[in-house]
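User: I need a structural model of G/U mismatch-specific DNA glycosylase from Streptomyces salinarius for a docking pre-check later this week. Nothing fancy, just the predicted structure tokens so I can convert them on my end. Input:
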Amino acid sequence: MTRFTRAELEAARDRLVPDVVADGLRVLFCGINPGLMTAVTGHHFARPGNRFWPVLHLSGFTPRLLKPSEQGLLPSYGLGITNVVARASARADELTAEEYREGGRLLVAKVARLRPRWLAVVGVTAYRTAFDERKAQVGPQERMFGSTRVWVLPNPSGLNAHWTAGTMAEEFARLRVAAEARPGS
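Assistant: Understood. Predicted structure tokens for G/U mismatch-specific DNA glycosylase:
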């Protein structure tokens, strides 16, 4: 893996990272916002220690462990990635509540356009702030965006010590089972 200098990472601050999306996905995963490593590489969840890619595989969403640089394969599995807030930062706590709310409004429009079966927000705090759902918990939500169901997943950041890769994979697998079920069943 390429090592970047602090200056290279800082130069990526506020950079935008393109979504990995297609129409009619089974699951559109939604991160909080790109980190600096993601902004430098252009690959979502690129920071070493982020458990998104291993958990995606452990939960059965992908047949093998993908590298962040292979994110372009996701639509072939019916999966995609976007973010609540588009701009890159070193830490999510650098974002304002207004950025989250505006990101939530933009996300609703994106979901209406792309029509995924499920929107999976990875980070309960981001979901609560973006959609003013103060009591939301990890798992399926009552809220829907059109015909798109919503599931909140634990944040896969290595800083989230409340969840192990194994317990995260169990929650991701619950979503996978729901996403594979026939609509209406």
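Before docking, keep this in mind: The chain has one domain: 16-180.
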